[in-house]
Amino acid sequence: MKTFRIPVVAVLVSAVVAVCLAAEAEKGTVDLKTFKFKVADELMSLFGYDEAEGRLFYYTGGAAETTIKVPADGQYELVIKAACDPAQDERAKFKVTLDGEAVGKETLLTEDLAKDYPLTLQIKAGEHKLAIEFTNDVYKEGEYDRNFYVHAVSLKAK
After folding, report:
1. 28-157 fold
2. How does pLDDT run across 107-137, given as a tens digit for each residue?
């Protein structure tokens, strides 16, 4: 009879990863790396996830979408932590949709630096498509450039 030994380190690492994933799910945090941008191929360089900053960047107008899993029917608070580079005396605006339906109204950022923007919504249990769209891009080379950044997204039952 052969016996297999699993190194203790591997077991400990697996346990730590499992605990971290469980804690992340309980906090309701949405992994920003799972967002996919819904834009033309020639514009893809203007959108993405910045590893160094830990944020999504939108250098022009467009939407990013991910799938979220909701454990139970109910009222939830969706919090988008967002920032921007303002231009022409206006900050960035964004819209949120769930399964293609608007969640609240278009939101105008009230700060340039990262700030939480909460939205309340009713959701049924199951998988849903969550999209965040930057809606008021403006750019003139060498003069101004409004950009939008998403630093975090969380969804918690109320």
Report:
1. Jelly Rolls (2.60.120)
2. 999 999 999 999 999 999 999 999 999 999 9
Give the model confidence (pLDDT) of 132-151 as tens digits.
999 999 999 999 999 999 99
pTM for the whole structure: 0.83
Provide the b/e sequence for 15-39 (b: ≥16 CB within 10 Å): eeeeeeeeeeeeebebebeebebeb
The residue ranges of every structural domain in the chain are: 28-157
The single residue listed with the structure tokens 């016996």 is 3
The residue type found at 152 is A
